[in-house]
Write a structure and sequence with these properties.
The chain is α/β, with parallel strands linked by helices. Helices cover 33% and strands 13% of the residues. The chain has a seven-stranded mixed beta sheet with strand order 1-5-4-7-3-9-8, with helices on both faces. A two-stranded antiparallel sheet has the order 2-6.
Length: 268
């Protein structure tokens, strides 16, 4: 079908596999998160999808929060034991504990929320819906601005996405919908001189404060990013740092140390 599909800018690892059915035959109006049943890296998930099993997903979230791209959004992945679901769903495999209830690390769940927000935004959605009922979910005809959450256990004799995430599906839907509809805070326009003090130590994922604002200001000014200068080193800032480091041939570790700071200043 003729649709302009894009992929998430949050991706920090790409390994496209051939285990998919080609371009999807239904517009994207579902998201199906899964549990990997293992605390895996993005590369390890790529190894699994490149192996002999007929399985894949559009995205994966590694135990450190890295987002992997394995099947582009335009293509139908082999993930949910349902052609009908996967033709219309973005599928996301998430690193989890190997035993029930298959809990996620906090960074994995936070990244899942941010990835779902991004998927909805790029596909023109304002609501992520969780009905908690198989029949209602699968028979519901979403409005053009709606996305529906579905789960693997509805299509196969599996516990996926695990009881830990299943109990949080309503929370996931609420957080994503709230973020999609909150007023966008205006980002301060970059001035000729950064109004924030340069951090003296390395700044990394999870950090907060003016040192993070310095990084965000420089990424907006030097790399053309559109980050909210809010002092929170979250998923979006991490993705922007990784992109800048790769472009400037720095160690792509998402940590803003002295070399990355120097490159940011030089790029102004």
């Amino acid at each position: 079908m003729a649709t302009n599909y894009t992929n998430s800018p949050l991706v920090g690892y790409t390994r496209l596999v051939d285990k998919h059915s080609g371009e999807r035959t239904h517009a994207i109006d579902r998201i199906t998160p899964h549990c990997v049943v293992g605390q895996v890296t993005a590369a390890r998930l790529g190894d699994i999808f490149s192996g002999t099993r007929a399985v894949s997903s559009n995205y994966g979230i590694a135990l450190d929060g890295t987002v992997g791209l394995y099947v582009e959004e335009k293509n139908r992945s082999w993930c949910s034991s349902s052609n009908a679901n996967d033709q219309r769903a973005i599928t996301i495999e998430c690193a989890s504990d190997p035993k029930p209830p298959y809990a996620f690390k906090p960074v994995v769940y936070e990244t899942l929320v941010q990835l779902c927000i991004d998927i909805c935004k790029r596909n023109g959605k304002k609501k992520l819906l969780w009905f908690g009922d198989k029949t209602k979910s699968l028979t519901y005809n979403p409005k053009p601005d709606e996305m529906v959450l579905t789960v693997h256990r509805w299509f196969a004799n599996k516990s996926c996405p695990g009881d830990w995430l299943y109990a949080r599906m309503d929370d996931l839907a609420r957080k994503v919908t709230a973020a999609l509809n909150e007023p966008t805070a205006p980002t301060p326009k970059p001035t000729a001189k950064c109004p924030y003090a340069e951090p003296k130590t390395a700044v990394r994922y999870g950090a907060r404060g003016n040192g993070v604002k310095w990084v965000q200001w420089h990424l907006n000014k030097a790399a053309g990013e559109k980050l909210d200068v809010d002092g929170h080193f979250g998923v979006l800032t991490k993705a922007a740092v990784l992109s800048f480091q790769r472009k400037h041939r720095l160690a792509a570790d998402s940590i803003v140390g002295s070399k990355t700071r120097a490159a940011l200043k030089k790029a102004l």
